[in-house]
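Lecture 7, part B: from sequences to assemblies.

Below are the input chains for today's worked example.
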Amino acid sequence: EDQVTQSPEALRLQEGESSSLNCSYTVSGLRGLFWYRQDPGKGPEFLFTLYSAGEEKEKERLKATLTKKESFLHITAPKPEDSATYLCAVQGNTGGFKTIFGAGTRLFVKA
Amino acid sequence: GAVVSQHPSWVICKSGTSVKIECRSLDFQATTMFWYRQFPKQSLMLMATSNEGSKATYEQGVEKDKFLINHASLTLSTLTVTSAHPEDSSFYICSARGMLNEKLFFGSGTQLSVL
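Predicted structure of the full complex, as structure tokens:
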């Protein structure tokens, strides 16, 4: 069964304090690993798709990396507006290509 | 990116009434749409998968007679919560996947409160 585990559950940073969020996964035939950002009371907003180990994607202060077992979302010099819940999800080759989500990491960035 | 519109954003209803939530893909044809439920500070729980023109596939533990899903066209899917009860109060989110993409595009969610 496909599974996604994210850590930590919550992360509090000072503005400018870089850190990383972890996403560990098990999946039968990875089609894609996704990172989303979700603000309170809103639907998730797409950030990145990673397809194979070794792949990296960057967008502004965010960089996502992928290995065969986990993905990291690195946040460089975060700002208060980066505060949100970051969700990791995987899609495998079985189960009708369902997308399975982790519980998310709630990030708080203090000015 | 692709746009998915979900309405209403929030709804308050009395126990025993039915509520319909609409999900539209505005600028692409969505062959598959998904309905998720999310409790506070928890992740998205997949309820059902709907493909245009066919019956929805429900996840284990989700009552298909309570959560009616219709995907009548490539741009519209609806979720009807029938005879809603307070325990159905939750944040419901739809998402859509196009023909060529694996990634999902999400609606803005509907907060349902059943009194």
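Note for the exam: The two ends of chain B are 37 Å apart (CA to CA). Keep this in mind when comparing with the next example.
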